[in-house]
Amino acid sequence: MERMIGKWSFIIxxxxxxxxxxxxxxQTATVAWVFVILGLIIGLLNxxxxxxxxxxxxxxxxxxxxxxxxATVKYVGSYIQVILTNIIVIVAPAALIxxxxxxxxxxxxxxxxxxxxxxxxxxxxxx
Length: 127
Hints:
The protein is mostly helical. The chain has four helices and no strands.
């Protein structure tokens, strides 16, 4: 059930990001807060521990592309830039939650938990 809530949060967020990118009247602080809340829900409910690395890499890629200045593309660039910025506003809080969960999981290593996974996904060696 939780994964379905996270899945629908993502779908609704992306659709709303596209619509808000096309309709200037929807580019408001209230809609931005909706994006943040959806991102938090996604980070809490939708990203499993085994998906952490892939999600965080994808989040970094999105943020990098968002900084590329796509607004300079004629005719559609400004729309693409706003849509991408909206999606980043969803992904950034999700990435924050996922990263914090990963740090917490890694911190559990010293408390008798199973070995944490390193950033490349291989098990850490015991010394």
